[in-house]
Amino acid sequence: MKTTMITLVIALFTTMGMQAQKAMDQFEIQVDGLGCPFCAYGLEKKFKEFKGIKKVAIDIETGDFSFQYPAEKALTMDDITKQVEKAGYTPITSKITRANGSVETSKANNTELSATSEIVTQKILVAGKCGMCEARIEKASNGILGVTEASWKEEQNMLEVTFDKSQTTLDAIQKAVAQAGHDTKAHKATKQAYKDLPACCKYQRLQ
Amino acid sequence: MKQIYNLAILAFIIAGCTSQDKDQTWQLSETIALEGVNPIGIAASDNGIWLSDGDHNRVVLIDDNGKTLKVIDSLDRPMHIATEGNEIIIPQYGNDEVIRFRESAKTVITTKDSLDAPAGVDVRGNEIAIADFYNNKIHYSSNGTDWMTFGKEGKADGDFYYPTDVQITENEIWVADAYNNRVQSFTKNGTHIRTVGVDQDLNAATGIFVTENEIFVTDFENNRIVVFDMAGRFKQEIKDGISKPTDVLVRENKLYVTNYKGSNLTAYTLKEALDVIPEEEHDHDDHEH
Q: Are A45 and B119 a contacting pair at CB < 8 A?
């Protein structure tokens, strides 16, 4: 009888353990701008502090950042994007494999062109200072409907952006970049947006 | 005759000054490849050079050719390490522990206040100093038991914005105030003495090494080492072979630089500076007089 009870208890705990293991969502994020080890390890460290987070792994060389999180908390793509951005990083692509097997992926650029599209390429001054800035500025630009390509060069502090004039404007792009924390000629980042940038991204503000 | 004699002495003095003033500068002498190591911190020992390899959670002891002699692994993001005798002292950024390794025996250094991402440590006899990255503080103990802290987040003298490295010299504590892009020195009571490098447009002063005559600072994003004299005056910029430098060390008249992105160690020796034609002479013909 005693043996049966022990077996049942072990079986129960094993099943519970398996269920607990199954009930984790897997998050895989490609993060850009992981050049500075202090900040990159900081991202890993800060995520480790989340209650319930498991198997946090970061590969500095490839920018692959992954972890598991309890499925019951139903962490969304938006939540995770915001959290990574809050830590100062820019998620380029994200993939969530839910505990039930379903897969969600993010898309970097949703712009679709039509026959009436009027494509132009323009350069604008955007303040920044490192690879992480580059990723953030390009992500903010690419996130605007109408933008097809964005490339920021650290040496010149210039953003070259290609966009459809029928869908967006250069002013709207500058506004989005400023909201991400980077001063442009037309729009300045708010004090809070600048403050929220990680240490290595604290560029010299434009006058 | 006396005038000729005086002129001869003057000429002799000028010649002497010229040869002395033909300053020696640090020049690249070798590049030591580090297979699979992305070095962050560096410290010297009798047996070789210790390097922290944060990406791979280990520290490695190498010989002068870069050959790995010993590995301590299973660490959690080791950063700017230090050595003292046969000991290696390792700050672990990932788990907030600073540990001492002697042979294979490990002890944890207990500070009065908790740490949040210790990024650098230095030991000098019984003295220990720790750069506490996220708390923007330096923890210092003169005897290894009693601790004091100084610093807070900010930009004023004595404040820090993510300190990453620290060094104890005879009378001062030097701090790489990384994201304030400067170096600061303090008395051993934590009183600010001087700030160095603010005029050099540093972009992340991640590592420092101070000798009797010079202050070496890594300028991480600008891929260079900047050398200052003890008064904080600019002396030299070193760019040869540098790729995302994280730490510096002077050992046996050689300057070593850990290149995080280059996965190598570059060594520099003091050599007579090459003659450089002053900029004015270059541009002479272009000016209108």
A: no
